[in-house]
């Protein structure tokens, strides 16, 4: 299923070597995520802070947290072992833009030591408007924003609180601020020609019916791709939504939703929901070879 089919040639130029956007590239190019961003500025009901951010990451395993310097060393070590490395992403374990100093320092160092590597960033979008210039300055290739709702009543069932302008906001008020900031951020990035992909987590009974509207809205605001991911339900994660747990969608439910959005814009269907510290080709995780200890041992 080639994601590439409907992309314009200009966008295609920017993403063709990115394993996540082209079924072709996915077999030939590698990506890595570095876990430099521990803090988050919102709470998602599907997140259990012990785990990686569900912005991009499969929940379930704690990743090793790195300083920007350690992250840059790791990029060099990986690049020298896996020459197909084309993309470095920052996706957690918290929100990269709730840790702006670490995130942008890492990008700056990587731009210096490995200028050919493309950078990407994923965020819940709350702080996006504050960092558009920094994102442009680091030459970030594309940004992923996780948008699970555009209706604050739906959002309030997903986000119990956000921390914004030195204050905790809850309920509808919190969801309203978050959604406004996400959609404005998307619009500003699109206007500045920074590629924007939208991730949505499909949560049965909460936002499953609503995601078709989300799809229309993000398309209208200039997103180039929409990636609807299934909620990954596990005993540790299920409890946050209620005592009986929250189930994830079935494969059929996910496909039906993706099909009903397909007419609207290109859908991404081969995202693997990688960990915040993933390394290697998609489906061939080599992160165990590149722990800080091992990199230090290499000198
Ligand atoms: Fe967790 Fe990510 Fe949501 Fe923050 S944005 S609460 S890290 S899933
Ligand atoms: Fe690509 Fe999805 Fe993995 Fe990110 S989480 S590197 S978009 S496959």
From TrEMBL:
Which pathway features in its UniProt record?
Cofactor biosynthesis; Fe-Mo cofactor biosynthesis
Q: Which cofactor does it need?
A: [4Fe-4S] cluster
Keywords attached to this entry: 4Fe-4S, Iron, Iron-sulfur, Lyase, Metal-binding, Nitrogen fixation, S-adenosyl-L-methionine
Q: Which domain of life is it from?
A: Bacteria
User: In the record, what terms sit under GO molecular function?
Assistant: 4 iron, 4 sulfur cluster binding; lyase activity; metal ion binding
Positions of the Radical SAM core domain: 26-277
Function description: Involved in the biosynthesis of the iron-molybdenum cofactor (FeMo-co or M-cluster) found in the dinitrogenase enzyme of the nitrogenase complex in nitrogen-fixing microorganisms. NifB catalyzes the crucial step of radical SAM-dependent carbide insertion that occurs concomitant with the insertion of a 9th sulfur and the rearrangement/coupling of two [4Fe-4S] clusters into a [8Fe-9S-C] cluster, the precursor to the M-cluster.
Q: Which family does it belong to?
A: Belongs to the radical SAM superfamily. NifB family.
Name of protein? FeMo cofactor biosynthesis protein NifB
Species name for this entry? Bradyrhizobium neotropicale
Provide the organism lineage as a comma list: Bacteria, Pseudomonadati, Pseudomonadota, Alphaproteobacteria, Hyphomicrobiales
């Amino acid at each position: 299923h080639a994601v590439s089919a409907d992309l314009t040639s200009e966008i295609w130029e920017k993403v063709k070597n990115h394993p996540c956007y082209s079924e072709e590239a996915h077999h030939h190019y590698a990506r890595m995520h570095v876990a430099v961003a521990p803090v988050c500025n919102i709470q998602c009901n599907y997140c259990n802070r012990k785990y990686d951010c569900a912005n991009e990451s499969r929940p379930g395993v704690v990743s090793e947290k790195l300083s920007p310097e350690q992250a840059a060393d790791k990029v060099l070590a990986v690049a020298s072992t896996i020459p197909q490395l084309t993309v470095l992403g920052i996706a957690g374990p918290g929100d990269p833009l709730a840790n702006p100093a670490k995130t942008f320092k890492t990008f700056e160092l990587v731009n210096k030591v490995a200028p050919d590597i493309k950078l990407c960033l994923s965020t819940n979008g709350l702080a996006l408007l504050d960092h558009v210039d920094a994102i442009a300055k680091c030459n970030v290739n594309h940004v992923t924003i996780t948008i699970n709702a555009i209706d604050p009543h739906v959002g309030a069932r997903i986000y119990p609180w956000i921390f914004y302008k030195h204050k905790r906001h809850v309920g509808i008020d919190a969801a309203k601020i978050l959604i406004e900031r996400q959609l404005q951020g998307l619009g500003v990035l699109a206007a500045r020609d920074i590629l924007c992909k939208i991730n949505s987590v499909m949560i049965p009974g909460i936002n499953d019916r609503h995601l078709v509207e989300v799809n229309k809205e993000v398309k209208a605001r200039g997103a180039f791709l929409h990636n609807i991911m299934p909620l990954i339900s596990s005993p540790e994660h299920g409890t946050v939504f209620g005592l009986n747990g929250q189930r994830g969608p079935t494969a059929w439910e996910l496909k039906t939703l993706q099909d009903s959005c397909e007419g609207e814009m290109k859908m991404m269907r081969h995202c693997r929901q990688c960990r915040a510290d993933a390394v290697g080709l998609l489906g061939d995780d080599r992160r165990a070879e590149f722990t800080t200890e091992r990199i230090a041992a290499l000198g």
